[in-house]
Amino acid sequence: MVADLYRRRWRIEEAFNVVKRLLRLSYLWTGSLNEIKLQIWGTWLFYGVLVDLGDAVAEEMSLPFESISLEMIYRGLYHFQVAHHKGLAADPVKYLAAEENRDLGIVKAQRKPKVKLIVAPFPDAVCSGEPFFFELPPKIPLTTGFEA
Questions:
Q1: What distances in angstroms separate CA 138 from CA 98, 126, 130, 142, 145, one per listed residue?
Q2: DSSP track, 43-91
Q3: What's the Cα-to-Cα distance from 111 to each of 6, 66, 105, 140, rounded to whole Å?
Q4: φ, ψ for residue 44, nearest 5 deg
């Protein structure tokens, strides 16, 4: 339960990161209070549309939403617009989820499992269990009191 709450908290951090970095809300276009409010409102509205589009693409591809990159959905909208202008695409969800458009990077790459790095000069000797330079001393039992 705690891990689930932490994961949800992290989604909020990711949302702020996407809005500030990708949608450039970290820069204000003007000094007018009304225009700043409009910029913030419009940016968050577009972020909501982007999340909804990402959710629809994830559903179309039968993948969990966490495996879809919102940044690449955003960047893929340009390619959809070009294809739409040429008359090759009509639905952005179908276009972004299509097999021939997998090179857009919509699906996040799976991370490789962590591999323990052995920095010994002769790793085979270390892995074999044989002593390398010296033998470890036997385990000494710990005592908690004084002997009388």
A1: 62, 18, 15, 12, 21
A2: HHHHHHHHHHHHHHHHHHTT--GGGB-HHHHHHHHHHHHHHHHTTS-S-
A3: 20, 13, 14, 42
A4: -70, -35
What is 120-139 written as a DSSP string? -SSHHHHHTT--SSSPPPPP
Structure tokens belonging to residue 147: 């002997």
Identify whether the C-beta of residue 86 lies closer than 8 Å to the C-beta of residue 93: no
- The pTM score is 0.66
**Whole-number Å distance between alpha carbons of 63 and 59:** 6
Name the helix (H) or strand (E) containing 141: none
Q: For residue 109, which amino acid is it?
A: A
pLDDT at 54 over 90: yes
The pLDDT of residue 45 is: 93
**Residues 23-49 pLDDT 10s:** 888 888 888 899 989 989 998 999 999
